[in-house]
Amino acid sequence: xxxxxxxxxxxxxxxxxxxxxxxxxxxxxxxxxxxxxxxxxxxxxxxxxxxxxxxxxxxxxxxxxxxxxxxxxxxxxxxxxxxxxxxxxxxxxxxxxxxxxxxxxxxxxxxxxxxxxxxxxxxxxxxxxxxxxxxxxxxxxxxxxxxxxxxxxxxxxxxxxxxxxxxxxxxxxxxxxxxxxxxxxxxxxxxxxxxxxxxxxxxxxxxxxxxxxxxxxxxxxxxxxxxxxxxxxxxxxxxx
Length: 240
What we know:
Layout: E1 2-7, H1 10-19, E2 23-26, H2 39-48, E3 53-56, H3 68-83, E4 88-91, H4 102-111, E5 116-119, H5 129-139, E6 143-146, H6 157-165, E7 171-174, H7 183-188, E8 193-196, H8 229-239
Parallel strand pairs: 1-2, 1-8, 2-3, 3-4, 4-5, 5-6, 6-7
């Protein structure tokens, strides 16, 4: 069984390799569901690891409906990844109705070239998962990462089994909530791969922060932040 580790740093990536993982998905900001890592991190990880490195292409947290500018950024990130010799791309795009944006997903798939392509957990938001998976396979995508449209892969096992039954060229890879106590269930159920982060919290300093740098208000999944033009103009005019 292939064990893919979602690694958020060079240290995490090295730990995954040392533990015997078969490959990693490299990303940043795991608490936000993962976003595209920096050029420097991709380069250092690719140089340090001998196992395959797949990179998440997701320009921001939140939903998977992207503006034209965000989509162009995703294409540029894939160009950078392929130039650094990564082995796989992990991505996907939805429309505002939560169906797959096939044109944009096909463009990402084409840009990935010879890299393996994983359609990520945006799949867990689509309305017709079985029909969507058939189309994902027909596109030629090699792997589907999904929790079975549940909070955890264990909770989504029913849909995961249905997807596995109709899988052919595309491997169904359960992910979300997989730990040491339940990983064996997915092997026994006949899955060929699993995805997990296996993280623990590390305290960098014993000195508490005087003020928070994180937002106190959490965004909903279908919300994002953007610099407001009117507000910026008012601020700039006020100081000039």
